[in-house]
Structures are given as C-alpha cells and as structure tokens.
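Appendix C reproduces, verbatim, an entry submitted by the partner laboratory led by Prof. M.T., so that reviewers can inspect both the input and the predicted structure.
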Amino acid sequence: MIYVPSWQNGNGQGRLQAGEHYVRLSDACELCDAINRRRLLTYQLQQDFSSQISPGKHVRRHELDGASAPPFDNFRDSLDDKILSAPCGTLGGSPPTPEAMHWLWPVAGSDENKVIVSGTPGGGEVGLFQKLDGTGNWTDPALVAGTTAIRAVHFNELRQVTEWLRRGSWELPVYFAGGLFSVLPDTPWITDAVANNGTNELRAVGYSVIRTGETPDRGLMNLTVRSSSCIRITADADCSVEVYHCLRSIDFVNDPPTWNEYDPSASAAWTTPGGTGSGDAELIGSLDLTADVPAQLSTDELTSAIQAMVDGGEQNFLVRRSDEGSETIAIEAELVVEFDLNGPPN
C-alpha cells in the first residue's frame, strides 16, 4: 500500500489553516500515534504522552499546557532526536543490533534517497530543517509553557516531518548461531563457518532481528521492502556460497538444529537433511566470494524473503558452500533493509 497520510483535520493537503481550522485534541493524538509508530520501527518503546495529551488537558487552549515538558517540545524531541537519530545497538548481540538506521529523503528529485540529518548536511545528505523552513530549526524553536501560543504552523511542521520520515535503510547483523554438520547428523553445531569437501558439508544457519515478536512488536512492520535491499557476506577464504531463506522455526538457544532435524526435541526432520529441501528453505541467490572482501547480493528473491519476514515469517538464513575445497571457511553477514512505510496509519 502506498504511503498516503490521513490527517483528519485540515485542508486537502492535510494542513491546518489559520482562521479556518480549530486545533483539536485528535490532532495531538494523531501525532502521538504517528510518532510511536516510528519509535517502534526503530526498536524503541512507545512514548506515553497521556500525562500531557489527554481529555481535560489544555491542548485546545491558545497556549501550551503548563507541564514541565510541553507536549509539543516532546513531539519535536521525538522526531528530530529519538527517531531521526534513533539509538542503535539497543537489542545487544555481537555486533549489536540494529547496527545503523537511516531515514532517506523520499521525494523524487536530485535529493531522493539521500540521508536526512537535522544539522548541516554533508555529502549524500539532506537537511531536514533546510527543507522544512529554510532554517536550522523549528519555527518558534523555544516553546515556553503557558506563554507561547499554539500556531497552525507548529502542527503543520510536525505533520510534514512525520510524512518525510517514511523511507528507511536499516542495517542488521546476521547472527550465525547454528551449524548443520553432515559428519555428525544428529549433533547440534555452533558455528559461523561453512565447509564442503565434496563428501561432507558444514552449513551455517542464522537470523536477523527484523522484528522482535513482543507486544507491541518492535522493528520493521507495515511497510514495503524496496528492491535496493541487500545482504552482504564476507568470508576469510575464496569460495562460492548459496544463500537461502530458512523457512523453519528454529530455537537456536534451547533446541538448536542438526543436519537431520530443525526441531530435535519434537523429532521434526528437515524435508531434506541439511535444510535445503522443499518447505525447508528457498534459494535467495549465489555469490562468488574473494577472501576478506564483502560481496553484495540483491535479488528479487531476497526482496520477497525480507518482505515475508516483515509480514511475520521466519527471520532465518542458511548459507552453504557450493564449491568444493578442503578449507573450513568463516563467514559473516549483514542485512540491509530498505523500505517505504505503508499507510494509513500515519
């Protein structure tokens, strides 16, 4: 679904016009929802604005409520600090995830897909406030509780920034937490390595944290994955590999898979030992790797696989060495998910 904002109160472009539109409590609540949607996308918990944005509060007056942190300051802080410059590495791991989160300029033109920044833009960047009002800050940047009048421009700027923060590029590590070893077909193997001597194989199985599965869920959801997404793989020796989307549910911590079974405690066997049979995995693509040089894979199959993960499918990958050699080769991988938000909601 194409992103189309759906602000209830405003003109045909979703903007409040002075002298025509009253400021409503629903306007603030919509902004709360839009901000929290983006906080969840950036693996943060939702912000509770209820102490300042709720029935009985003074949002509908001409001046800001007398709270120590006025509600519009909190909105602004969330958008240009907590979301635009979202904290990385919040979920731990080694390396920590997410590794990086960048919002990209979504409007067609010479700046499209440049990284949005709140300060002075450098090469490959675009300045949020330069686009917003030609300055380096919000209109009336110092809002004073009980003194500063609420203006239509304050709501309109918040809405505009929310609409611009709809295209992202997230970098997520792939954790190779399991190994499938044909020599010991019923033994779990912990590895980030692949091997294939023509008779026996060691395959690596891992995952990315695209979404956490919590309530509410954090991570990537309600969006369309862009074909520019990719997976980058590095090996410590020359080799060729095949990359798969592993479709089976795997408990890497308490019940790690084996060459024969993806769920040993339930005696649940792979369709084909090694995990690449029908219903086990779907091929994403192949790469010829040069030692210590990252190689990038970007295919329609990868886009479809990531979309399935975003929509609730298994977030697992399987990598096997497809050429033959005597070496056991260490590998590492990084997933880059580029996306556009679906709408509604905002």
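The first helix runs from residue 25 to 41. Additional entries are available on request from the coordinating office.
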